[in-house]
Amino acid sequence: VMAVLQMQRISICALKKNRKAILEKLQAMGVMEINHILEDDEDFHRMDTANARISFDKAASSADKALDILQEYAPKKQSMFSALEGKDLVEQEVYEQIIRDKERLLKTASKIQALDREQAEEKAEILKLENTIEGLNPWLNLDAPMNYGGTAHTVMLPGTMPGGTTMEQVYDLVAEQAPEVDGVEVHEISVEQDSTYLAVFCLRKDAEKVEEALRSGGFAKPAQICGDVPAQAVEAMKEEISAHYAKIEQIRSDVAGLASERENLQLLADYYRVRSEKYAVLGELPQSDRTFVISGYVPKKCVADVERALKDKYDCVIDVEELKEDEEAPVLLKNNAFASGAESVLTAFGLPGKGEIDPTSIMAVFYVFLFGMMLSDAAYGAIVSIACGVLLLKFPRMSESMKKAFQLFFWCGLSTLFWGILFGGYFGDAINVISRVFFGHEVGIKPLWFAPLDDPMKLLVFSMLFGVIHLFTGLGIKGYMCLRDKKYMDFLCDVVLWYALLIGLLIMLIPSELFASIAQMTIVFPPFVNTLGKVLAIVGAVGIVLMSGRSNKNFALRLALGAYDLYNVSGWLSDVLSYSRLLALGLGTGVIASVINQMGSMAGKSVLGAILFIVVFIFGHIFNLAINLLGAYVHTNRLQFVEFFGKFYEGGGREFNPFKANTKYADVKEETKL
Q1: What is the DSSP secondary structure assignment for residue 491, as one 8-state letter?
Q2: Phi, psi (degrees; rounded to nearest 5) at 605
Q3: Is 438 exposed, middle or buried (0-12, 13-18, 19+ CB in 10 A)?
Q4: Which of 153, 516, 549, 619 could lock onto 558 through a cystine, CB 3.0 to 4.6 A?
Q5: Model's pTM, two decimal places?
Q6: Does residue 30 contact residue 657 with C-beta atoms inside 8 Å?
Q7: Which alpha helices (H) appear in 30-101, and where do they start and end?
Q8: What's CA 57's distance to the chain center, in Å?
Q9: CA distances from residue 648 to 407, 473, 480, 494, 540 in whole angstroms, order as listed
Q10: How far is Cα 509 from Cα 531, in angstroms, rounded to an integer?
């Protein structure tokens, strides 16, 4: 099958009391894109669902946050392939039970978040205490409280002086600044690089003068004062920190205990997310006092299913109509198992615009063919194909986009295997190198066709030939579209004349010396074929000059436009030359593989040599496969996007976006028909 699925507009008018049930049914089926063409009038109005949506989004977000917290506290073990597993499939009854239980689950989500906040508070307290302890550490040798008030006649002044200050300097400073004061005693508590910690005792009556004297030398009071002896205060704080850690452990254990609710919370988040989407649509519906209308696009093949699902259960009128001439329908592609893998390549360029065909099937054949030719190593092809095949079988619920990518690379791997056998590449020349170095007798698998490294010009000629076939196919599709749309003049002028010119030029080129020197073989056509080539080229060239500007009435301008269009022959030449990348990438894979094999075998036949060979072989070929896979992917895309699509395809279609249950964690079993 190669098709853009035909769309029809479906309009449903039903009783207002059934609107939620009908919307839920349509959402579960997932085959209708809601698109209203009805303008508001006095009988119909739209309902404001913004508040309901906000509350649903908030509930979904709350469940998501709770799940993130659970993952942090009680991580769910995930394999390296977890991204491929896709969403779980749950039974309808399980989902309905979650809906009945939603209030309790919302409270659970809130509780998990509250416990997380509590842990954050405990951590903040620990940090505060640790900072306090750090500030008190220099004072641990002080065996009096830092706010010690002194006796009836004496006081204590705790504080710091700049680093390197000695006791003598302090005494000298006091003697110099306050000579009338006596009875000062200085105790050094501790010394750090940039501060000296002191406790200075003096008479209460002299306290101000002493402090002033000390200040002149850089004395500063402590940043924090504690009411206990510092050592005792630190001990008490350490005990407090231990209590906070114990509380954190308890919180972590409480959260981990709620991990059994993980799957339920996931379904809850999905439930509210789906409800929010339903209410978004509900807010768009034109509604009267007793009825409502819903309109949109449905693929033609699904219309009967929608009618059957709704008419059997609800009082409603369903109107199905073909699309208007100027209506731009959304695009949904439907291809067979082989071609559907290449849909992602087409989508990256653009979906078919109005009136265009879906070229995926034809493109997929060329894509796989050219990709294999670029990678062109049988062992690499087998590895890619087997890896993709195993992953497709092992993870049947992977996302649709991943499934398509693996399907595409599965076929590309088979194509690579095919070309590898034709060209005789099995990890490059690994078989030859291993047999020669380690077994003393060289054996190898002969290429079924020829070895590109021995005959690169032959590969270049075939690359150009495949390029011409690819480009001519693109032009042929353009011709088909012209005939389908009954544009016979366009078919003659834009397709037939170009075929005539290009085929004529090819017939003239092939017997020439230029071609013989490139292809290293001489091809001689009978005289009538040479004449035919010249006639075709002349007819094509003259026709293009006369007919390309046919929409213009001014004859001189028409000829100028025609001559400019004829200049496009150079564009065709550059397009054909683009296919030389098939040679470049094919040779690149083989050359790098050979170099890896040579490097691995440098140590010769020995135990060490064997170990070196295995290590170099594994890492070297993994690197070569990765780099050339990327190269083949990028360049095969380019040949489709620039050279092939350039001949007939514009794209610009809009993707079909059905109203369906866009869940994040799990899918509910439903009888969807798409």
Answers
A1: I
A2: -90, 100
A3: middle
A4: 549
A5: 0.86
A6: no
A7: 50-73, 92-100
A8: 24
A9: 26, 10, 10, 11, 19
A10: 13
- What angle, rounded to 10 degrees, do the helices at 580-600 and 456-484 form? 140
In angstroms, what CA-CA distances link 445 with 442, 450, 595? 11, 11, 18
Q: Which two tokens stand for residue 232?
A: 């005792």
Return d(Cα 210, Cα 201) in angstroms, integer. 9
**Is there a contact between 339 and 361 (Cβ–Cβ < 8 Å)?**
yes
Contacts of 99 (CB under 8 A, 6+ apart): 271
- 3-class DSSP state of 655: strand
Q: Provide block-wise average pLDDT over 10 residues at a time, the chain (674 residues).
A: 83 94 94 80 84 97 97 89 88 93 97 98 97 94 92 94 93 94 93 94 95 95 89 96 98 96 96 96 91 95 95 93 90 94 96 93 98 97 98 94 96 98 96 94 94 94 97 98 96 97 96 86 91 97 92 88 92 96 96 97 93 97 98 98 96 94 88 41
d(CA 551, CA 365): 36
Lookup result for tokens 């360049």: 635
377's CB contacts (< 8 A; 6+ apart) are 416, 420, 425, 426, 427, 428, 589, 590, 593
Those residues whose C-beta lies under 8 Å from the C-beta of residue 157, and which sit 6 or more positions away, are 199, 200, 201, 202, 207, 210, 211, 214, 221
230's tokens:
């510092």
Half-sphere exposure of 336 (CA within 13 A, CB side): 8
Contact call for residues 269 and 63 (beta carbons, < 8 A): yes
**Residue with structure tokens 């030719």?**
373
Token couple for 580: 């030389």
SS3 assignment, position 89: strand
Sign of CA dihedral 54, 57, 61, 63: positive
